[in-house]
Amino acid sequence: MQTITRSSVRLIRRTLGFLFLGIGVAGVLLPIIPGWPGFVIAILLLGRRDPALRHLHLLGRRILRILRRSRVRQVRRIGRWLSAHYVGMRRGLTPRIIQAERMFG
Fold first, then answer.
1. What's the structural domain count of the chain?
2. Mean pLDDT over each residue of the chain, to the nearest integer
3. Where are the alpha helices (DSSP H) in the chain?
4. How far, in whole angstroms, is CA 10 from its chain's centroid?
5. What is the domain range of residue 77?
6. 17, 42 in Cβ contact below 8 A?
7. What does DSSP assign to residue 2?
8. Which residues fall within 8 angstroms of residue 23, CB to CB, at 6 or more apart?
9. Would residue 21 count as lying in a domain?
C-alpha cells in the first residue's frame, strides 16, 4: 500500500478548496444555492494565508471600493450595500474560521 505524502495532501486540499470556492461564487450568482457555505469550506481547506485566496480577497475589496466611489448614484448605493454586508459577514465569520482552523490544524 502506498503512503500519502504531505505534498499530495496539500494538493488535494487546495484542489477541493478551489472547487468549493467555485461553488461559493456560483451560489452568489445563482439564487438557487447559498454561496456562503462554499466560501467557508474553501477558506477552511485553503487556509486564510493561501496566496491565491488572499489575492482574490484583495480583488474583491478593490471592486467594492470602485463601486462605492462610482459617479453613478445607483452603483454607489449598491457598492455601499454590498460593503455593509461584506463587513457584517466578515465580522461574524472570522472568529469562527479562526476557531475551526485551530481545531482542524
1. 1
2. 85
3. 6-29, 36-46, 51-68, 73-104
4. 18
5. 6-104
6. yes
7. P
8. 33, 35, 38, 42
9. yes
pTM of full prediction above 0.90: no
- Measured in degrees and rounded to the nearest 5, phi and psi for residue 74 equal -65, -40
Residue 98 class from Cβ within 10 Å (0-12 exposed, 13-18 middle, 19+ buried)?
exposed
- Would the pLDDT of 103 be above 90? no
Q: How far apart, in whole angstroms, are the C-alpha atoms of residue 24 and residue 69?
A: 26
Length of the chain (residues): 105
Asked if residue 94 is part of any domain, the answer here is yes
Residue 1 lies in a domain: no
First to last CA, the chain: 26
Which amino acid belongs to residue 34? P
